[in-house]
Amino acid sequence: MAETTLSQRLRPYRVLLASRARAQMQYRASFVTDILGTVGVGLAEFAEVWVIFHNVDVLGGLDFTAALLVFALSNLAFSLADMFVGHLDQLPRYIRAGQVDAFYVRPLPLLAQLMTSDLSLRRVGRLSVALVALGVALTTADIAWSPATVALIVLTVVSGTAIFSALFTAAGGLQFFLVDGAEFTNAFTYGGSYAAQQSQQVFPDPLRIFWTFVVPTAFVAYIPAVAILGLDDPLAPSWLAWLTPVAGLLAWGIAATCWRLGTRHYQGAGG
Amino acid sequence: MSIIETRDLVRDFKKTRALDRMTFSVEAGEAVGYIGANGAGKSTTIKMLTGILKPTSGHVRTCGLDPMRQRVEVARRIGVVFGQRSQLWWDLPLRDSFAILGAVHRMDETATRARTDLLVEQLEMGPQLGTAVRSLSLGQRMRAEIAAALLHSPELLILDEPTIGLDVLSKQRLREFLVAERQEQGTTLLLTTHDMGDIERLCDRVLVVDHGRLAFDGTLTGLAGTVGAQRILVIDLAQPTPDLADVPGATLVESESDGLRQRLSFDAEATTVAAVLAHVSSRHEVRDLTIEEPDIEDVVRRIYAASGRG
Amino acid sequence: MKTFWLLLRAGFRRHSTYRLALLAGMTTNSVFGFIRASILLAALASAGTAIGGYDAPTTIAFVWWGQALLGTVNLWGFAEVKDRVRTGDIAVDFLRPVDPQIAYLAGDLGRAGINLIGRGVPALLLGALLFDMAWPPSAVSWAAGAVSIVLAVVVAFSGNFVINLLAFWLVEIRGITLLWMITGGLLCGLYLPVPWFPDWLRTIANWSPFPSMLQNPIDILAGRVVGHDIASAVGVQVFWAVALLALGQVVLRAGRRRLEVQGG
């Protein structure tokens, strides 16, 4: 009984998302091109890691396999978040097109409508690069496999996606204020993604604190990877990896606040 | 029951007052035209009725609910069309937009299909169902927008400039549909427009907003009477004719081309077009006639002048 | 020449109205600058020596000049010309007394100018303030660096211009644009210095126009390239600028003929 209710509750969003998927499939040629494009973006990101390791054996305390695991986990989470809610940082475009007003006169929460208003399926390209990298990293790395390891990996992907989604949502909320300066939020959405795929040991302390406690992208990949591989970093003890969901929750708390402030500002100023 | 109720509604933008102590109510089943010059406060009012904009002060209720606090519930019970902004999915066939909106309003699929079929039939939109929304003509799109807003059978339909940019035929079809729909469903209608024809065909009551204040509330004839805006009957005659000075209830305004075309103004409360026409055609051969409606901007300007603030 | 100057100033003013956008761009560039500087310094520390001729201060210069020039050089391309070809508005451009390529180039140089001043220089100064950064070693490096920046803008513009013009023949140029952006982004020396690449990738990069869009001016300004090598770095840029501008002219004329034959 409860199951049908939930499925009914979610039906509007399912229909909205399905319609977005259908719209993208209509132009098959450009859809395929776009997928290849995001594969290319993923490969270019990987090339950066690979070229560095062409020159050095260890970077920020990680060897190539460990760096690959960090790269894979962060790219996986980022492409998932980008696929589902990456368009939230296009908010000024929605406002200009009057789309936000149209959302207000529909009987669903604004944020849920905005999230389901697009679904960038083309990001499966980058997602697949991340999955291949993850596969290679997990098979070549020296991992003491246990149920806990598997649980930690799953937990990391889910929480990491939640963290990046929270960043996009916070960006959307702030963009109600910024509009012309929408690019400000790229600093912590795309910048956060770039920081997440690094060994956090490369950062000087202030930056390390920033990417752990202010914009918690260290939790997306590096901290769990250290635990999975059993590496030694006094600032990233393995129990910290299990706090990744907490980081996700806190990020969502901030994101929700930003979003509420943003919509309140919109209703106050009239767009 | 009041479907819309505002009391001392005020809205400021920075230092300017967009809406000033607006008080009015609309009862269930009424059809109200909401007119005023650009920037007079029409959109501001609509945004506050729908929960998009927060009032600076004052009281507003839509369907008895507070649109800021109960926006979702309000959205369930009203249908809104913003004339210049599409609410349809432009990259998908029209049929899909109805299906999606049905789901958004949590109607089941059978109900959605039945209601879509009915609206599509009434609006004669069958052939366009498979067309992508972006390929529809403006007239077709506007009918689709209204059908979409009515899909969930709302109690209140708010139309913001629904006929702007439409050709005469499209306007007429739209108005005919709205008249029929209201007769059947008794939907309350609030309409902003620049077209006097919309008001005349659709509305029993007119609200005029001017510089954020309610300047008039009454019938269209009353409005025309208040400001002395009269309708003009333009008569084209077969032969040059002396001035038609003796038509009861009408006064000659102008005579052109040796009396081939004459303009008569008449008071709609004193006589009818038919009576004027019958009188003229019993004496002369009439080739054509048109009615010139008073322009809304003109009416508003007159009200403004009459209220002594000009 | 006067017209060119007027168009350039118009481009400058057009983009200078978006002050908040400039500030936002500068902030994002700076955040990326911090991250990249951290990574490259860690790599240098791990290697224990300079890599590909870059030591710590020149690496910092590489990072911050790169971030400063990112908004100046139009690496990610533009769609304006493509859109005008598609809508047929390009015919209007042909009717004007100025050659369309020259007109758009002037506009792009104006855009580059305001982005360098409003977005690039502040990011550069921030980097210089917080890191130990190498400045251009001589007046020659400064002057050659300035020329090299202008050439980089011209090379990036003329490459993108040719790609935009392909819309005369192709219905959809998105795939080509994407390919250009991705290879360009990798090979121009934005993420990592081209001298860090493995031999085969460096060879590919050096045969492509992409290092002329970023790596060459950075090499000169960071002081990695000095003396006679400056002349060859600028010489390569001049070659690509002339070659791509000429190619643009050829493609533009072919497009115009196609427009005339098909009647728009």
How do the strands and helices of this protein lay out in sequence?
The complex is a heterotrimer of chains A (271), B (310) and C (264).
Chain A: H1 2-25, H2 28-55, H3 64-85, H4 91-96, H5 99-104, H6 110-115, H7 124-140, H8 147-178, H9 186-196, H10 205-214, H11 222-229, H12 238-241, H13 244-269
Helix pairs in contact in A: 2-3, 2-7, 3-7, 3-8, 3-11, 8-9, 8-13
Chain B: E1 2-13, E2 16-27, E3 31-35, H1 42-49, E4 57-62, H2 71-77, E5 78-82, H3 94-104, H4 109-122, H5 138-150, E6 156-160, H6 168-185, E7 188-192, H7 196-202, E8 205-210, E9 213-218, H8 220-227, E10 231-237, E11 250-256, E12 261-266, H9 273-281, E13 286-292, H10 296-306
Parallel strand pairs in B: 3-7, 3-8, 5-6, 6-7
Antiparallel strand pairs in B: 1-2, 1-4, 8-9, 10-12, 10-13, 11-12
Chain C: H1 2-16, H2 19-47, H3 56-70, H4 80-87, H5 90-95, H6 100-130, H7 139-165, H8 174-187, H9 199-206, H10 215-222, H11 228-262
Low-confidence stretches of chain B: none
The Rg value of chain A, from CA coordinates, equals 19 Å
Shape of chain B: globular
What oligomeric arrangement do these chains adopt?
heterotrimer
**Distance linking N and C termini of chain B:** 37 Å
Q: Please, what is the average pLDDT of chain B? A: 86
CATH fold topology of the largest domain in chain B:
Rossmann fold
CATH superfamily of the largest domain in chain B: P-loop containing nucleotide triphosphate hydrolases
Give Rg of chain B in angstroms.
22 Å
Percentage of residues in strands of chain A = under 5%
Structural class of chain A: mainly alpha
Helix-strand string of chain A: HHHHHHHHHHHHH
Helix content of chain B: 25-40%
Number of β-strand runs of chain A: 0
Side-by-side strand order of the widest sheet of chain B:
5-6-7-3-8-9
Number of domains of chain B: 2
Please tally the β strands of chain B and state the result. Answer: 13
